Structures are given as structure tokens and as C-alpha cells.
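Q: Two folds, back to back.
A: First:
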Amino acid sequence: MSTTERTRALRRRMIVEARRATVEHGLHGFTIEQLCETVGVSRRTFFNHFGSKDDAVLGIELNADLEAIDAYAAGGIVPGDLDPLDSIVALAVDQLRRVGIDRADEVLVRGVFEREPALVARFLSATDAQLGRITAAVRTRFGWDDPADRRARLVTEAAAALAKVTAETYFDDAFDETTGPTFDALLTENLRLLRAVTTTEREHTT
């Protein structure tokens, strides 16, 4: 296991344990020190990865994905011949394959939000910030330098909507993970469906 993989696994353990503790005891029912003891890390190590206990519960890692987003903005990570929407979906698929996705963890997240509803707003704010970073990266990658140019924002919001619909399907209790597609395959299929319907609509109006 590489250093990067070990670091990623450590972060995942801290996140999962923070969520379990929140579901069981509430956000204020455990300390960072107790979390660190459970995971087997020092307080210093914790703060190398997360800015606060809330961030650990929500999975908001310090400098998360910044390297990948910067590389994407510079024209890397995904093939250079992809159009903006395809390239963002490909970036999402690349990151999902690196990090992995666990349906059981989503159950924990739902439990966290049920126990601590105030964290929903914090999560949405962090999501908006991440979308802002991706929008800026799209603008840089495709040379849309004019701040008034709305294309980057439109593309990013479309990709976010695709991810939302995909997540709603994949994490639905009725979804059979053993026979259904993987998350990234489902995301790619939803992109194809979106392309098909917009192309059909265009043909009907010409």
C-alpha cells in the first residue's frame, strides 16, 4: 500500500468513527481526544487532516482534492479532447475510483443528519464551496476568462445535478448493489441519457 493509500485509509477511518460516534452520542457527546484514541492517532495527526470535529463528521478534509482540481484545470487528469461536461463527469469518476464509495457509509451520513440536523447547512455550504472551486477550474481549463461568462457555472451545476440524481438512485434502499451498476457506471449512463434527451429536443425544434 502506497503512502497516499495509507493516508486515504486513515482519513476514512477517522471519518467513519466520527460519524458512528455522532450517531450514537451526538456531536457534543464525544471529544476529539476520544475519537483519536479510538482510531489510534494523535491529536496533531487529526488536525493535519481536519479543521474541526464537525469537518471530520462531514468528511471535509483539509486541502481535499485541491491537487486533482489544479491538475484538471491545467489540462490533466482526464483526456484533453473531452468537452466541458464530459470532462467534469470523467473527473468525478476518476476521483470515485481513487477514493471508493460505500453504500453503508451513506446510511451513517443519514443517521448523522437525523441526529444533528444543523450539520446539513454546514454540509451544503461546503458543497457550494467545492462547486465554486470546480467552476473556477473549468473556467481555467477551457479558457473562459471573462468573469461574466456563465458557461463554466452552467456546466458545473449540470454535473452536480447528474451526481445528485445518480446518488438518489444508487443510495436508494431498493437499489440492489449486487446486480445493479456501479456508481460511476450509473453516472456515465445518466450523462448519456442527458445527452440523448437534449439532442432529441434540439432535433424536434429545428
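A: Second:
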Amino acid sequence: MSENTLKRLNKYISDTGLCSRREADKLIEQNRVTINDKAPELGTKVGPNDKVKVDGKVIGAVAADKSDRVYIVYNKPIGITCTTERHVKGNIIDAIAHKSRIFPVGRLDKPSEGLIILTSDGDIVNKILRAENAHDKEYEVTVNQPISERFVKRMSRGVPILGTVTKPCVVKPTGKNKFTIILTQGLNRQIRRMCEFLGYEVTRLKRTRIMHLELSGLRPGQWRNLTEKELTTLQNAVRHSSKTA
């Protein structure tokens, strides 16, 4: 069998939209995956005639042209949690109620709102999430007190949080207590932590853009499919991105 027809098991599982590659590796380690009814090892490769099961259920290979993949943008309301765990009240999967199995690309914390991508294409998730790919994300932020010139300069230059210093970013005041910020990082609760370090508290946080994708008039709780042009641009943008193994 040609090496070109084989695919690493974690990628095969991820491409089906079941989970990320990292999560697929955990499933394999937990002996929840079989190939032709036999337990595989990490790094095992799958051929076109192999039958892969997760928790005893067969999962089919993704179409070669990914025509069966789902790509949507969602205006996440405040209070929705970006998790695929259905037992969590207010989880994003139940909120959207899409007929396909999808999962979010990255996350917005529960008190935040705005644009998030969801897809069944695990490969594109891995590419987008890699911080070094420098895919920019824009946010509108409101804080609890007037912002100063010093605040804007410090935020733009970088702030020490989580054992590192944030990368330089673009910060523009838009009101007495408001500003926009464009990040190329995705540290946990990054904007809130940056503001806290400088003595400010975020009272509203809304993501308005990821790369070329915008909310486009979506009201909180609404979602739409990516247009053909948006999807093509997205795929081109991450075509040469590094991705997790």
C-alpha cells in the first residue's frame, strides 16, 4: 500500500470532526479507539480499507475535497460556555443546535461575547490555533474607569502575565472607557489579565473579527455558514501554517 494513502490515526479521527488531534491521542491512550477491532498504538497509520471505531462506533473518513465539512461563524452571547461537553449547562453545542458534529476554534470565556468559528474540520482548527501563525483577532473592550495614554502605551507594548510578556499589539481608544485591541496571541483570559495588571477591570468584552471574518450583522445567538469566498480566503491564509502533530 502506498505511503501516500495512509494517514496518521489522530489526524484521521480529527479530520472527521470528532475532536482535535490532541484529544484523539487521549482517546487512543484510553483504549477507546480500535482499527479493525484491534487496539492501536499512538502514531499508527490508517489505510482506506481500515475500519476505525471510537467507543465501538465506526467513524467514516472525511471526503477528499472536504465537501462534507461545516464552517460557521457564531455571535456568542454572554453566558454561553465554549465547551463541547454536553453536561455543562449553557454549552455552545446545545446553544447552536447544529445537525452536524462541530466544535469551536479556540474559545471566548463565559462573560465575553462575539465572533467565534465552529467547524467539523479538525485540520483547520489545528492550523488556526497555533499562536505562531499570528492570525489576528480584534476586540471591543470597555473598562471600569477612564483609560489613560499610559494605559494604551503599556497595553500596546506588552504586559507581564502568566509567566510571560504579551506580544506587542494594536490598541486604539474609542471612548472614555473604551478601546479596540488586535491580538495575535490567545493566552487564557489575556485581555482581562492585561487590564487587571494595569489596575483596570473589564466590564464588557466583544470579539468582532478573526482574520478576515466579521460578525456581519449577526445578532447575539445567531450564526451563519461561511461564504465560499470567506472559506477560500481562510484556507489560503492557513495553507502554510504549522500545525500540531
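Q: And?
A: The chain has three domains: 3-58, 71-130+214-237, 136-210.
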